[in-house]
Amino acid sequence: MKFDKTEKSWITYDVANSAYATIMMAAIFPIFFTGICSEATGRGDFWWGIGTSIATAIIAILAPMIGAIADIHGYKKRIFSIFLVFGITFSLAAVFSPYWELMLIGYILSRIGFTGGNLTYDSFLTDATTIERMDTVSSWAFGLGYIGGSTVPFLMSIALIMFGQNIGIDGVMAVKISVVIMAIWWALFSIPFLRNVKQKHGIDKPKKDLIKNAFVRIIRTAKSIFTNKAMMIFILAYFFYIDGVGTTISMSTSYGAELNLNSTSMILALLVTQIVAFPCAILFGRLSRKVGSITMITVGVCIYLVVCVVGFVMGFGLEENFLSIQEATSLFWVLAVLVGTSQGGIQAISRSYYAKLIPPESSGEYFGFFDIFGKFAAVVGPALYALLVGIFGRSSFGIFALVFLFLTGFLILIIGRKTLIEAEREKAEK
Q1: What is d(CA 336, CA 270) in angstroms, rounded to the nearest whole number?
Q2: In this structure, how many other beta carbons lie within 10 angstroms of the beta carbon of residue 199?
Q3: Is 203 helix (H, G, I), strand (E, B) or coil?
Q4: pLDDT by residue (tens digit) across 331-351?
Q5: So what's the pLDDT on residue 40?
Q6: Radius of gyration of the chain measured on its C-alpha atoms
Q7: What share of the chain is helix, strand, coil (3-state, %, to 5)?
Q8: Distance (Å, rounded) from C-alpha 325 to C-alpha 259?
Q9: In this predicted model, what pLDDT tens digit does every residue of 93-112 receive, in sequence order?
Q10: 203 phi and psi, to 5 degrees?
Q11: How far apart are CA 306 and CA 308, in angstroms?
């Protein structure tokens, strides 16, 4: 399928922001922070989970207002740009902070910028393409994000960490340079989106009481979501399973570091995730056109349930000494491949399925609520993980939080399957 200039530019921003997702959220920075924080507190993964929960809670609270204001003609791009600058600036502040407390605050603020920008970016999907092409465009965005935004800066970072000492760059400096590379990459690949994607749908700016008007529209949109059976079923299922996806992304390397797995091996395994995710995300988009979006989302949830089982066996085996570090590391590589098969696909199809159901002129408002469910979910997952680790004193037991989240999302999808499929079909026929 050929993409026009607007679609290509929208897709390119996924290439831009994926560098943050890999380096700051999933691999380089979490391992760096967990190591420093564990030396000071003895529980780096606990504080990483708390910081992630705080960041997502803040953006979740603000999401409906952000979306409502973004729907005003001419405002969506401005709001996006503010969050973009915020995310890049505080990423740099986090990695150059001298204390773990300041590093955590910088990470929280950078993640607010990242997720706030993604909220407005996602809502631009209704401006960038048509309903018939949404699954394909969204899937290619995630796929190219993995193979481009995740892989290239990731490889550069790995090279610095593994071979930097040969040119006088120690491990700490290698991490700092990696985050600088990420920030530059994020900024440069945002330019096509900033230049070429325009807000086509929206509402006129109210003559007065901008905030009050936004609250009125937020209440109206909330009523519309809660009275639409298909939308309510989907967003409830999404709340649970996307929480599991987000927690897996945020906690995987922190979990591995707490189990004393080799940092280099974990980073290389996550590189495999990015490589596998590229074709699989695109495959999800193609298969969704044949078997339906809901079927492919359900397949993705099932794969993540298998990931949970393997992840628990890995951690429990190390804690009970019936697995060696080498065997656990091998299981971590298995996890990396399994996650890669569905991580991009499940997020891409969820985004495009929801975009099909909503009115395009109110995409900001509706994606604001979509973000509320996703981000409040992201608060629950790391918090549950941290709670279970705190109660039992064993990182492996944190995996039960993920099992609960994915299993609940799966059951809701199965129970509401008929309604969800009919809603997608009706929307396509209009």
Answers
A1: 6
A2: 22
A3: strand
A4: 888 888 888 888 888 988 998
A5: 80
A6: 21
A7: 85, 0, 10
A8: 9
A9: 999 988 888 999 999 999 99
A10: -120, 160
A11: 5
Secondary structure string (H, E, C) spanning the chain: CCCCHHHHHHHHHHHHHHHHHHHHHHCHHHHHHHHHHHHHHCCHHHHHHHHHHHHHHHHHHHHHHHHHHHCECCCHHHHHHHHHHHHHHHHHHHHCCCCHHHHHHHHHHHHHHHHHHHHHHHHCHHHHCCHHHHHHHHHHHHHHHHHHHHHHHHHHHHHHHHHHHHHCCCHHHHHHHHHHHHHHHHHHCCHHHHHHCCCCCCECCCCCCHHHHHHHHHHHHHHHHHHCHHHHHHHHHHHHHHHHHHHHHHHHHHHHHHCCCCHHHHHHHHHHHHHHHHHHHHHHHHHHHHHCHHHHHHHHHHHHHHHHHHHHHHHHHHHCCCCCHHHHHHHHHHHHHHHHHHHHHHHHHHHHHHHHHCCHHHHHHHHHHHHHHHHHHHHHHHHHHHHHHHHHCCHHHHHHHHHHHHHHHHHHHHHCHHHHHHHHHHHHHC
One-letter amino acid for residue 424 of the chain: E
- Is 429 a residue whose pLDDT tops 70? no
**Residue 168, Ramachandran bin (φ over 0: left; ψ between -120 and 50: alpha; else beta):** left
Among the residue ranges 2-11, 143-152, 279-288, 344-353, the one predicted with the least confidence is 143-152
Give the residues across from 203 on adjacent strands.
72
Residue 395's region, left for phi above 0, alpha for psi from -120 to 50, else beta, is: alpha
Does residue 264 have a pLDDT over 80?
no
Question: Cα(148)–Cα(275) distance, rounded to whole angstroms?
Answer: 9
Q: Sorting pLDDT into bands at 50, 70 and 90, what band is 114?
A: very high
What mean pLDDT do residues 232-245 have?
89
DSSP category for residue 29: H
